[in-house]
Amino acid sequence: MIVKFDHITYTCATAYEDDVKNMLPQYKVKFKEKNLFNIEIKNELMNKKQKYHNITMLYKDKGLPIELTTYDSCEVDSNVFNLSDTVISINTANKEKTEILLSDLGFNKETNNSDRWVLHPILDNVDILVEIKENNSEVISYLDANGFTSIAFIVINSSKYRQRLLKLGYQVSEINQLIVNNKELSIFFLIGYSGEIIEFISIKNNEGI
Length: 209
Description:
- The chain is mainly β.
- The protein has a single domain, classed as Roll (2,3-Dihydroxybiphenyl 1,2-Dioxygenase, domain 1).
- Helices cover about 15% and strands about 45% of the residues.
- It has three helices and 14 strands.
- Strands 1, 2, 3, 4, 10, 11, 12, 13 and 14 form a nine-stranded mixed beta sheet that branches. The protein has a five-stranded mixed beta sheet with strand order 5-6-9-8-7, covered by helices on one side.
- The two termini are about 15 Å apart.
- The model has no long low-confidence stretch (mean pLDDT about 95).
- This is Glyoxalase-like domain-containing protein.
């Protein structure tokens, strides 16, 4: 069960970090981590080998958290996700399969908008809105691409949630551990039909959820 939306990731080369922050003037820095080792499960989701990365967690009132992730270089542009105010859009080559994915994650279709789906995790005070946009052009999906590259959710138990997704037939990574902001995280990724990269995180002892 998803209990909280953690962030949407925006990725760029480290040299352009300040430029991206200037694009988000209402956001404030919650914490920053430098030279984090890239966990093994990320390798197959990268355009090129990247040993380290930096992250800056950005927050604003009544907005979705953004994790600004930077690498030495980002050579391609991502076109799967986008963020407009508080609505996440997903570009997909198969609207039906993306709808099934959202349904399996607990989203419900909005009654007055057939392209928009909503999730209200129990630990969030705002709805998570996702809009599906069918796009038959090539989808570029890498964690080290420029732009919005993935979305991340908090679950209580990564292992159990991963097993649930496997039984539903989804492609998922193994689980790796990483310490971020003094919290021990268990992380895995799901790769959707159109290249949607979705990160699932559980926190040791559920501290700080």
